[in-house]
Amino acid sequence: MSSSAFAPFCSKRVCDIQTIHRDLCVLDAFKGSGLDLVIGLPNGMVKDLSNNPDHALTWVKDNVQSYLPSTHIVGIAVGNEVLGGGDLDLQTSLFPAIKNIYNATQKLNLDSIVQITTAHSQAVFGTSYPPSSCVFKQDVSQNMKKLLELFSQMGSPFCLNAYPFLAYMGSPDQIDINYALFNPTQGIYDEKTDLHYDNMLDAQIDAAYAALEDAGFGKMEVVVTETGWASHGDANEEAATLDNARTYNYNLRKRLAKRKGTPRRPKSMLKAYIFALFNENSKPGPTSERNFGLYKPDGSITYDIGFPALKSSSSVSSLLSIKEIGAQSWHWSYISVLSSCASMLFLFLRL
Q1: Which residue in 135, 274, 151 sits closest to 201, CA to CA?
Q2: What confidence tens digit (pLDDT) does each residue in 203-250 have?
Q3: Dihedral pair phi/psi, residue 329, rounded to 5°
Q4: Quick one: how far is CA 286 from the chain centroid?
Q5: Could you tell me if 306 and 281 are in contact, meaning their C-beta atoms sit under 8 angstroms apart?
Q6: Do you find a cis peptide bond into 276, omega within 30 degrees of 0?
Q7: Domains delineated in the chain
């Protein structure tokens, strides 16, 4: 795969792409592309690097330093949705792993170039309705506070995977689907803050801000590192339709184009990553898990969200070689897109 595979994005004035991937062939493909990359460190490596600072230093040398500056690596994402998961050893290993990676970037004088993050699911929160009531769960608060202190020191954001689709699927009788899809609706009112929410994603983000404020980190930015809607599902996943997926992502694109924040943080422009660029035909679980992509595996577009760069083409099909590489082991990738109108639109490709 060569950098020409990204021509459909660059030709439409899409100027930034971030990918989380540690396969050497993929990193080579981005050389000279002028696109930003974030390299992912998978959950399976977290425990080892938490106990071995030398391994962390070697990892950063091999996967980051050796590709600079021709490959524009701007970040490292350590693990994904670790806190709130079922592996307690992994949870306690996350902080020392991130600390070791950070120390490695300092030793290599990369800490001012490469930002370190980790993404959280909503499993780290207690009740999040209304948004102002949200706090971190007691069983994750100790590990979370250490992470937040380190991220505050590093200047890193709080990364959140937020899915109105999953929230709606969990309580379809209690949630208006139009509220989840950004469609016109009366929304909800938070009496404590006197704030109105006309869509669920804003409410989920402000719930995270409330939890951060409760923990003493109210100045930290929230970045949505995954959000999307499944275009197909099983019989019991009635909301997973092509029309709903198109509606959600199209409306999300319009929401991001406004360059505004949330009701709780109106001056902080929302940044969000759409999950995903490609459908994942080999992914286990319910049918919806395999149908979040804007593209099908053959390179044809699943549905149009009105973004000029997202069109079916042979060049896009050549990106599928990434999936062939990624099928050999666990990888995940972000694709971020900055449109010509300067609105922020981010795409997420998980491998």
Answers
A1: 274
A2: 999 999 999 999 999 999 999 989 999 999 999 999 999 999 999 999
A3: -160, 180
A4: 21
A5: no
A6: yes
A7: 121-275 (3.20.20.80)
- Provide the token pair at 165: 């689709």
61's tokens: 């040398």
And the tokens for 234?
Answer: 């099983």
Tell me the CA distances in angstroms from 174 to 7, 48, 167, 171, 177, one per residue in order: 44, 43, 10, 5, 9
- β-strands 188-190, 195-197: how paired? antiparallel
Q: Which residues pair with 159 in a beta bridge?
A: 119, 223
Residue with the two structure tokens 């679980």: 285
Amino acid at 275: F
3-class DSSP state for residue 344? Answer: strand
Would you call 149 a catalytic residue per the annotation?
A: no
Q: What is the CA radius of gyration of the chain?
A: 19
DSSP per-residue codes, 154-211: HTPPEEEE--HHHHHHH-TTTS-HHHHTT-S---EEETTTTEEESSHHHHHHHHHHHH
83/81 Cα distance (integer angstroms): 6
Q: Give the pLDDT score at 21.
A: 46
Of 7, 59, 65, 61, the residue nearest 34 (C-alpha): 7
Residue 59: strand, helix, or coil: helix
Question: What torsion do the CA atoms of 85, 88, 91, 93 make, to the nearest 10 degrees?
Answer: -150
Active site residue 81: yes
Catalytic residue among 149, 226, 237, 324: 226
Let me know: does 203 contact 197? Beta carbons within 8 Å: yes
Percent of the chain as helix, strand, coil, to the nearest 5: 40, 15, 45
Question: What mean pLDDT comes out for the span 174-189?
Answer: 97
How far is residue 47 CA from its own chain's centroid?
22
134-163 residue pLDDT tens: 999 999 999 999 999 999 999 999 999 999
Look up the pTM and report it.
Answer: 0.86
